[in-house]
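re: that complex we talked abt at group meeting.

here r the seqs, copy pasted straight from the sheet so there may be weird spacing, ignore it
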Amino acid sequence: MRNVVIYVMAGLSGFVVMSFELLGGRMLAPWFGSGIYVWGSIITIFMTALAIGYLLGGRLSVHQPSLTRYASLFIFAALLLAPLITYADTLLEWTFNAVADERYGSLLAATLLFAPGTVLLGMISPYSVRLLVEDADHSGAVAGVLYFVSTLGSALGTLLTSFYFVLWFQMNTIVIAMSAMLALLAVLGYLTDRASR
Amino acid sequence: MIRWMLLALLLAFLPLALAKTLHSERSLYQNVLVIERMGEICLQFTVRVDVRNQTCMKKDHPKEMVFTYTKMMMASLLLMDDPTLILVVGLGGGTLPMALQDVFPDAKIDAVEIDPAVVKVAEQFFHFKPGPNVTVFTQDARVFGKRAAKQGKTYDLILLDAYNGEYIPEHLMTAEYLQETRSLLIPGGIIAANTFAISRLYDHESATYLKVFGKFLSFRVPESANRVVLASNQPFQPPEFRQARAASLEVRLRPYAVDLSRYLNRLDGRRDWNSGAEVLTDQYSPANQLNR
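got the structure back, here u go
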């Protein structure tokens, strides 16, 4: 049960990352256009933030790893991402005025808006490995299933956001829903941890 | 039977066989094709033959406007005195800025086009020439608009034609963009926008223009699937003014095959769209999905 919960949490965190990545393109478009450099900026920042998250998550997993700590990553990510609905435009306007070149403007904007939350979401993958692996023999198998669920979650997040969510909902509604999902996953993690003790 | 099928096949592909590709390039944004066919040079953004061309020019009469929607954009001139500061969003073959430069030599014209390949092709194949009064900005139109507002630029005529039919730039359809564009107009200035008239997008676009401009004019002609929206930040000039404009422009616009007097009775202020359609905003703008 505990392991299933971890896989679900990891898979849905991949879903949320890609949903935010696509929304990022839409948030930046009114200020920096929707050209290839805007997508280049967004993908660069998400990849870099995830990479840093992997490092930090691996580090964190060394000290007293627990499902509760794991769940708190989700809460902090939600707390960093949900307020975007209030301050995104202020940050975007500031960046637009501060940087004349749209390429570097969009790169800076993507960093300010998405890097902190994405670093936290990146920490989830290595931490999941630490919680799931029980012996070295099965570490590869565990990592395989983990990559499977989190990458599949990413694919689903991409598809559903671009095909349906943007057609059905306001952008801010999607931001809140994704943050709420992270928070709910955190609660699921806490409860599971308490139940299994 | 087989013979007829072969003949039909031959006829179907005849236009292709007669067409000569003058230029073909894959730009950052689209495929850019220049094709010569039956005395016309055409700019296309797709290889599919069933999708209409972006711009065509008759080799013998390069000034003549070939497409109805291009002529329809000129109806904006019925609602205002001769323009002096013009913004054209979306260059295509440069037909509109060239014609306007010709007819109003003293007017300053800014043209915005995101794709450098289109600018190059317009110059190379469609006689488009930026000059002292014509400036091309190779930039996203939304970014251009925001920067222009910051610099205090204003226009008395703005022509929006940034949609090539294959993919709609969704951030150029929202109420926020129209509001930004409206803020570039001098009092009484006119915006003409080439819009979609046959999909669900018609309702959404109409609702969006209504929200930003209040009353606007829908302009359609039977021979075109497009609708041109004409809007202003002040009440429109009365019918007598429009008649006088049509008469005064008649001779000047003849080389472009534009007859504005034909359009006088077609500027329609009625609301013929589903009034429940959601306004397109930066928060909600799935224009491409609504255009199926």
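couple things i noticed - Chain B touches chain A at residues 28-29, 114, 139-143, 146, 150, 169-171, 174, 176-177, 281-286, 289-290 (CB under 8 Å). Residues 2-18 of chain B form the longest helix (17 residues).
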